[in-house]
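Exercise (ungraded).
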Amino acid sequence: MEEETQEQPAPPTSSRSPTPPSIPNGNQGASDKVLRRACDCCRKRKVRCDGAEPCGPCKKAAIRCAYLQPPKKKGPKGLRSARVLHALRTIDDTASGGLPAPVSPREHHGAFGNWGWTSATSSPMQVDMAYGQPKSVPPDQQYYRDHAPAAMNADPRSYFPPQQPVQPALYRSYTEPVPILPELPMVLAPILNESKSQRLLGDRFLHYMQLFFGHMFPSMPVIDRNLYLDPRIYADTDTLGTETYCLLCALSAATIVQLDASTPLPYLQPHNRPTDDIFAKECLRERKSYDYITPTSTLSCLTSFFLFAYYGNHESHAKAWFYLQEAITFAETLNMDDEQTYAKLDPVEAQWRRRLYWLLFISERAYAVQRRKRTRLHLSIALPAVFKSEDPHSLNGFVNLITLFSAVDDNFVSAWRGSRRQSLYNEAWLANTQKQLDTAALALNNISETQHLDISVTREWLHVLAWQIGVSNGLIWGMEEAGAGMRLEYPIELARRVVQITNGANKVALDSHGIGMEQKLSDIAGCLADVLRCTAGDTSATYMEGKQYLDILLRTLSSIRGKESRYLKPLLAKMEAPLGHEVQDHHHHQHLPVDSPQHPASFQHTVAVPHDIGHEIIVTPPEGGLRPRTWSMADSVGMLRTLSMSGNLGMPFLVVSGEEWEWQPRRPSGRVYEEVEMRDGGDGGWGMVQAV
DNA sequence: AGTTTCGGATTCTAAAGAAG
DNA sequence: TTCTTTAGAATCCGAAACTA
């Protein structure tokens, strides 16, 4: 019933049906003509593909040849001239304060300095369909605009304009049934001031939607790009269903905070620059106007999820957790945790729901660990499809993340919450968990850098957490062979990997993970700092290496997402506090141009990364020329004991009092920063949307 | 020297708009 | 309808950057 994807794979079979190798006019053999379809790898590598089953270049390079990536639709889309015209007009308007400027945009370098022609077209530029072609609005359409939407609004379900019949992607709408409607009016009158609508204008959404799909979709592949990037839905927000509108608001809010300073947000109207607050507020306002609970829909669930993301990024943890729980409750109401339900759904819809379920799963696990909460969702349904999906690469990454978090089992969560039941997490469990983290997510080739980063850093982060669980529970002491990596050096090794991962990373990719990345990095750095502190004064190679990594991590945090991370100062403070003389200690050290901790922002990216980033890292010792040495087992155990008792780890910890082990009261958070429940009203004093 | 990567010229396609 | 124009996707050349 869906559009047929005539392009779809069938790669393993001998020859693809639409015979790409034979070119219409060209003489078969003489490969002078361009191939109709290059294989995925050749496409990526930008090399000539011969279209064979394992194609030549792939065979030569010994890589897996496939034709999975569905080709996108070619040709212009949407209203052609109207769109361009309006885009130009908008730019002129914004640049010249609303006056129609007859200047060609190419030579226009007014107040809007740096918009380039190319970036204007290729990068998300808002296309405001609310304005339209200059020439008149036919009266009937005028009428339509004023009246049809009202009818639509009566329907609490979502509305989307009819889509073109042919879509390249396998997956499509993820929404309520689409009512059949006459064509959406494409040419609309300028929004009238007296419009009673309170809603935000649609053009803003499109922009953030593009950002979302550009940066966040791979880790949240839960909405249909074909649907939500269609400018037509944003033509008039009044025609949107209430639920959809809420979702758009929540999603925009989340996108803005998450990408924050990391991505240029070109849509900066000087006067009414849209901020995340406005969107979040608007979402909640709209939600109050109808019953969003009773006819439970995936849209409500998504909305709650994005509210969670929004508040989470703002470190409003109570609210974030609340909305995550709300989303989970919706999911449960929809029986999304029950494999049975999926059989009854339309397969496409089922896939979208699976993704949503797993997204909630991941988020819950991650957040539960961070905030020491309980989890409700389990590995109860099958994973979403990867290869048959519209975006196998992203989905591959997504599924990898799921597998990673599968290692975070209930024991992990309860251990991290400070459960006393030692039996739950013995050495075997710990070793197993660590192993599981490593075996998960092996197939990481072929996925985007952004996702790769997310997965890799998350994995190391979970390693760190697991290690801390081990240390805090005294697991290391019994482990002669340190099978689960329960060694003092372990965090240093982890840090090495993290540094390798993040140092080579593209800044934008690193930054697009929002605060989550900062949290993980700071957790890792915090643990590393603890370990180093135990060994303060040591000048062994391992120690120096660790110092360097810590330094690099701190630097990364000092300039992450375009500013200094809020976790940096507390981290530095923590390092300095009880035992922390190491920062000053090494002021003179040539390899570590550490600024005084009071001015972390002045860190520069001139880090001398150890050359041999492989195994045995040789770090030239400071002037003194102390011989490198490694810690003996006895040293390690002693230090680990210190560490576990010093209570610096994020974990709840054991102490010895008399003859008995005792649990110290749980520390509020594994992280070393003050809880921020309210956003500091830095911008314009939108107090966070209060009440409910 | 052999490989890999990737900017971007070029080609291809389908949608939009014009003309008949 | 058919024809023309054009946005945007796709291919893949060839220079530059790596690697051995």
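Further reading is listed at the end of the chapter. For now, observe: The mean pLDDT of chain A is 61. Residues 347-371 of chain A form the longest helix (25 residues).
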